[in-house]
Amino acid sequence: KAQTYYNGDANLNDLSGKTISVIGYGSQGHAHAQNLSDSRMNVVVGLRKESSSWNEAEEAGLTVMETSEAAKAGDILMVLIPDQHQADVYKKSIEPHLEAGNALMFAHGFNIHFGGITPPDDVDVFMVAPKGPGHLVRRVFTEGSGVPCLFAVHRDATGTAKKTALAYAKAIGGTRAGVLETTFREETETDLFGEQAVLCGGASELVKAGFEVLVEAGYQPEIAYFECLHELKLIVDLMYEGGIERMYYSVSDTAEYGGLSRGTRVIDHNTKKRMKMILEEVQSGFFADEWMKENAEGLPNHIRMRKKLGNHKIEQVGKELRSMMNWIPDNKQSRPEPEPA
Ligand code: NDP
Ligand code: MG
Ligand code: MG
C-alpha cells in the first residue's frame, strides 16, 4: 500500500530562507509559482527572454528572470517545461549554476529515469507530481483544497530531501488532499503507459472506432458523435465519483447488462497482450528513444498524425455540434456574435 502524507506530515518551515525557482510558466508552472507565492514562499520564475508568458507572470505579481539567472538565484529549482526540451535547457542554463546542497525538482520522472539529465552527486533530486492539470492545481488551491500529488526522492544528498519535497507539496496544496510516495521509475513508467494505452491513446481510439462503425453503417454522424464522444464525459464522471460499479448503478439496467456482456468482446485478452507490449516499450526505453529521435528530426510523424486526426469526420462534426453547447467554457469566446434582429 502506498505511503500517504497529509498536512500534519509536512512543515513549510523546511523551505524557509530558500529561494524556489520555477522554470517554465505553462500548465504546471503558473500553478506552482502562484500557489508557492500564496504560501509566502520566496519564488522566482525562470523563462527565456522571448517567452510570451513573461508579462503574464509579472502581472500575477511574480519576479521573472531569464532561466540561467533564475537557476543561479534558486536553492530549489523546479523544472516545469515540456519533457522533450528539459535536457537541452538543463545543459545550457541550469547545470552551470547548480551548487552543492541545491535541490533539482521535477513534476515527471522522464528525464531522470531515462538518463536525459544526470545531475551532480551533491544535489538533491526529487519529484512532486500533481495528479491533475495545472489549471486544476491552481483553482483547487484557491478554493482551499488541493490536488493529490506523487512524490519521489531520486537522490538525497543533503539528508533532508524528503522533508523538502513534502514541504513543497504542502506549499502547492498537495498535502491537503494527500501525497503518495513512489519512485521515479514507477511514476514515469505508469504515467507513460496510462496516457498511451488508456487515457489518451486507448480512449480516443475507442471513441473513433465506435463513431466510424456507426457512420459506416449509415447512421447520421451527429447522432454518432453524441453517442460515442459527448456522452463519454457523463460516464467518466460517474466512474470518477464512485468507481465502475457506481457508473453501472446509475445507467439503465439495459445499459448495464449490455455493457457487462459486450464490453469484454471489445476489449479482450488480445487487447491486454498489446497493452503489455506497449508497457514493455516504455520499460525498455524504446518509446523514450523514439520520442527523442522524433523531436530531433523536427516531429515529422507527430505533425502528420496530428493533421490526420484534424481531418477525421468526428472532429469536423464535433466542432459544429459544440458551437451549440454554450455551457462549454472555451466555446463562449469562440462563438460568433448573435445576428442583429
Ligand atoms: P507546458 O507545455 O505547459 O510548458 C510550457 C512552458 O515551458 C512555457 O513557460 C514555455 O515558455 C516553456 N518552454 C517551452 N519550451 C521551452 C524551451 N525549449 N526552452 C525554455 N522554455 C520552454 O508544460 P507542462 O506544464 O504541461 O509540463 C511541465 C512538466 O510537468 C512536464 O515534466 C510534465 O510532464 C509535467 N506534468 C504535466 C502535467 C500537465 O497536466 N500538464 C501534469 C503533471 C506533470 P515559452 O513561452 O518560452 O515557450
Ligand atoms: Mg504524462
Ligand atoms: Mg444511450
Automatic annotation (TrEMBL):
GO terms for molecular function: isomerase activity; ketol-acid reductoisomerase activity; magnesium ion binding; NADP binding. It is an enzyme of class 1 (oxidoreductase). One of its GO terms (biological process) is isoleucine biosynthetic process. NADP(+) binds at Y25, G26, S27, Q28, R48, S51, S53, G134. Residues 1-182 form the KARI N-terminal Rossmann domain. The keyword Chloroplast does not apply. Binds 2 magnesium ions per subunit. Involved in the biosynthesis of branched-chain amino acids (BCAA). Catalyzes an alkyl-migration followed by a ketol-acid reduction of (S)-2-acetolactate (S2AL) to yield (R)-2,3-dihydroxy-isovalerate. In the isomerase reaction, S2AL is rearranged via a Mg-dependent methyl migration to produce 3-hydroxy-3-methyl-2-ketobutyrate (HMKB). In the reductase reaction, this 2-ketoacid undergoes a metal-dependent reduction by NADPH to yield (R)-2,3-dihydroxy-isovalerate. Belongs to the ketol-acid reductoisomerase family. This is Ketol-acid reductoisomerase (NADP(+)). It comes from Rhodohalobacter mucosus. The lineage of its organism: Bacteria, Pseudomonadati, Balneolota, Balneolia, Balneolales.
